[in-house]
Amino acid sequence: MSAIAREKLLQRADYTHKFNANTGRHGWLRLTPAYSVKIVEELMDQYVHPLRVLDPFCGTATTALSAAYHGHESVTTDINPFLVWLGQTKTARYSSALIASTRDRCSQVIEKVTRGKIEPVKAPPIHNIERWWCPEALEFLCALRAGIEAGSKENSPERDLLLVAFCRTLIKLSNASFNHQSMSFKDDRQLRIPLQIDMAQIFNGDVRFVLDGAEQSPEGAGYVVFGDARMLSEAVDGYFDLTITSPPYVNRMSYIRELRPYMYWLGFLDNGRAAGELDWSAIGGTWGIATSRLSDWERPGEMFKHPMLETALDRIAHYDNKSGKILANYVAKYFEDIWEHFNSLILVLNKGAEIHYIVGNSVFYGVLLSVERLYAAMLGRLGFDNIECRVIRKRNSKKELFEFDVSARWPG
Q1: Which contacts (CB < 8 Å, 24+ apart) does range 198-205 have?
Q2: What pTM did the predictor assign?
Q3: 35-44 — which CB contacts under 8 Å span 24+ positions?
Q4: Whole-angstrom distance, CA of residue 330 vs CA of residue 369
């Protein structure tokens, strides 16, 4: 891949605002830190001939984008419609004429917003929205969102690109802080927008960044489709030679919790219950009603069982804490879902296909959960060979936590 193509890959991978990369892939679109792109790139560089590449856990489409820039055909799936939209926007091809027209539309939108010629949209129904944005920022974002609607056609690539830039701007203007693994909010003294900040120019800069990344289209093709990773044969067509993915980690980190502002502003969510339902349908979800449902969830009799997992579940459930049983159910359900995913994966793999799963281990109440070894055990039970667990890096948290590349080959 050329140096220019690699630069554009990195820029497209960071279409949305990237926060503290040291905290890992979790968090509010902190799904494509530089090291994640680097890992995928290192894996892609090993394959010279064109392949069909699958990523069953799309996230922000890093694998699909990298595969396309390396000349492969890639397909990625996600159960979250917002991430599907984002991935489709990132992997699409854009002509120079379309990029130029989007720049023009951006100028027109900014001109109307700054002159007060746009009737603002209503603020999205985010609970306690004043914690997210101060009045000045909220007023500007409502006008900007209306300006984008008025200045572009519905479902057009111009609008999609402007909305990606809008996502970058809305979080830059927010009071959210991402200095830890989870999201927090800044001190009350930091809630006001300084007078010297030009919010329209922030958006203009974000549009330039997005369009710069869109200028060079990848050689290969990337397809992003809506689908459940536990039922892959229903979501994708044909068979694949290579799988590279990073599934949700087993750590009770709710992706939907920190994706909500994007999804509310862009109309993918309109109430908290819908957010909870979506999180419950995802692997590893714990937001809202998902947590309460875990209390009543019962482990099916027919599922993956392993002495290492059974010991960990027992120790977590009997820890001297009222949340022990819920956490044990969470861990058990996570591995049930991953087992179901692996069973669906083998239905869409070509003979000799290679797979790479980037995943981290976890600790619950001092109980180390060797996720990588359990993944390897699942793959072995299904008939994969050449199974390896390679340490990728130390995570910036507890000393026991690492990230691994769990790889294997499907003999067919």
Answers
A1: 199/136, 199/137, 199/140, 199/169, 199/173, 200/110, 200/113, 200/114, 200/140, 202/169, 202/172, 202/173, 203/106, 203/110, 203/144, 203/165, 203/166, 203/169, 204/106, 204/110
A2: 0.89
A3: 35/393, 36/62, 36/246, 36/358, 37/9, 37/10, 37/13, 37/62, 37/66, 39/358, 39/392, 39/405, 40/66, 40/244, 41/6, 41/9, 41/66, 43/244, 43/356, 43/405, 44/70, 44/72, 44/244
A4: 13
pLDDT (tens digit per residue) in 87-145: 999 999 999 999 999 999 999 999 999 999 999 999 999 988 988 999 999 999 999 99
- How high does pLDDT run on average in the chain? 87
Which DSSP string do the residues of 174-223 spell out, in sequence order?
A: S-EE-SSSS-EE--GGG-SPPTT--HHHHHHHHHHHHHHHHSS--SSEEE
In a 10 Å sphere around its CB, with 0-12 CB exposed, 13-18 middle and 19+ buried, how is residue 154 labelled? Answer: exposed
CATH code given to domain 297-412: 3.40.50.150
